Amino acid sequence: MNLEGPSPGRALDAANPDMRGKGQPQADPRPGESGSHPAHPAAPLVELERSRLEELLAQAPAGIGLMSGPELRWTFVNDRYVYIAGRTSRAEFEGRTLRESLPELDSSFIDLLLDVQRTGKPFFGREMKAVLNRRATNQPDAAWFDFVYQPLKSPSGEVQGVLVHAVDVSDKVQARRTIEESEERLRLAQAAAQVGTWEWDPVQYTRNLSSELHRIFGTDASDPNHAQKWASRVHRADWAKVQRMMEEGHRTGAMEFEYRYEHPHLGLRWLYCKGSRLPDETRMFGIVQDITARKTAQEASSQLAAIVECSDDAIVSKDLDGIVTSWNPCAERMFGYTAREMIGRTITTIIPPELQDDETRILSTIARGDRIEHFETVRMKKDGERIDVSLTVSPIKDENGRIVGAAKIARDVTQRKRAEHALHTSEKLASVGRLAATVAHEINNPLEAVMNFIYLAKSTPLPADALRYLTSAEEELDRISQLTRQTLGFYREARGVASIQLGPLIASLLSMFSSRGRTKRIELLPEIRSSSEAFVVPGETRQVLANLVSNSIDAVEPGGQVRIRVSAATQWNGSLRHGVRLTVADTGPGIAASVRSRLFEPFFTTKTEVGTGLGLWVCKSIVDNHHGTIQVKSATASGKSGTVFSVFLPLPAPAASLASRSGHPTRTLY
After folding, report:
1. Sequence-separated (6 or more) residues with CB below 8 Å from residue 495
2. pLDDT at 625 over 70
3. Which H or E run contains 536?
4. pTM of the entire structure?
5. Which end of the chain is more exposed for a tag (fewer CB within 10 A), N or C?
6. 304 in helix, strand or coil?
7. Which fold has domain 175-296?
């Protein structure tokens, strides 16, 4: 093998010059060869030995180098040393020091080498890390070596050089570290997942538990009784199942079950066990995982589901596009849609058209992570009915904290809103009643004075027309006086409920409204179609008709008509009822459909300049007290507009009602 530089033998000679030819016999010169040294009979043997040593070192699997002189310069390196050092030829070493040949090497290696030269003691290094520029890019590369610094001494014991023997063990170190890292990652993963591993041989009666499993069990690996302690802590109700599953698992080669375990420090835990047996083995291998958190979460979901199912509030979830993802039974009852109909459908299905922007605002608020509480609005049922609801909306987040949807709780507050409205109305009525009583009290005294003046005027000679006018004025003043006494609570109609003819009552009303009719050029057309006898409270019935006729006159434009009709009628109300129907129809502009349902509410009026909003409410109250009904029909189409109020009064009134009404005061509510 052709090596560059001095041969190993020469390198050894250089390292230890006193060894040259020492111990070899000296031969005399051959005869006849004057002027020349005699041949050295041992020289061929020495060269042969050097050649063999050179070949041996060159083929060695380890990196080998020789250093000599006070500066410890390389006199020989084999090809393996060149390779593991990341160089290309021996020429980069021979004749150079360690620092010159490997400048990137940590100085601690030079210190070790010098220490060997100084003390004459060898140094043995195991898996020592060195950073060398071994890559083609000349970038630092970490490597690990087992190496020896062996001093080369003269017979006198003086260190003449150092033999370097280096083995690259980087692959072994990295493989071991990879295994160690994998084991550590596995250990950390098991700890994070609360998973421990086990090995069990029921034939050899051996058990082997991982450290994590001992932690899960709360046992100590050094305790010889840890298996008995584990068995004693298995929940009493689950012990028979655990024994059965382990026996079946060993028989079949697979097991999987859950059980409860009383941990000495953590209390009751839920554990999951799974294992299997390898073919042709009696041993079983498996894992045990602490699933307490999952079990607790499952129970809390179960409880939440039960609450959602039984809740008296509609509980709905939806994604960020407003698509319904859950719909509880109360939502089905409240809105009329089944879960099958709504899941996968947009929530705007139950939002009235004019409130569609609600959903955009709600989703924007939820997307910001904010919560909406007690937002009162209106929602729509499947049949079109509108209900008042109070909404609470919260964001739904996934396991990473991202907002993925919204949970909505809707409470039907329709009855509460109605009660609030009724209370508000009652308060307003009470205020109006107090005001009306005060006004009536103040009016009553002047009315009596006017009545006296009319009485005195009628006692004097007057023309017939003047006497007739005074008589009419007296009748109207008497009616006003009755109303004021009613308001003050003093009025008790002497006759109570009575059978009266409606014709004269309507005639007197028309005479009272005739001047208003003439002023607006409106025709007042009575239509009496029967004897028109009614069993009513006369004053209250007159008040109903007066309110309806007055409203019609206000609504009709000049040239229009108001018809007052009285006719016999029947009505089905669980049974056939006979009675009389009073109808007031006008040719006015009609009443918009959007407000018709509120016409009989107190304080609601379509008149912007006049009216208290109490007239129709009073009419309905009177009709209800008579066990009758009042209805309205209206049209707003151009050329076909008009409004009709229809009052049905049954005959005869129920006996209980008659007795009640004839024996107690009759009062009109305002």
Report:
1. 538
2. yes
3. strand 533-536
4. 0.37
5. N
6. helix
7. Beta-Lactamase (3.30.450)
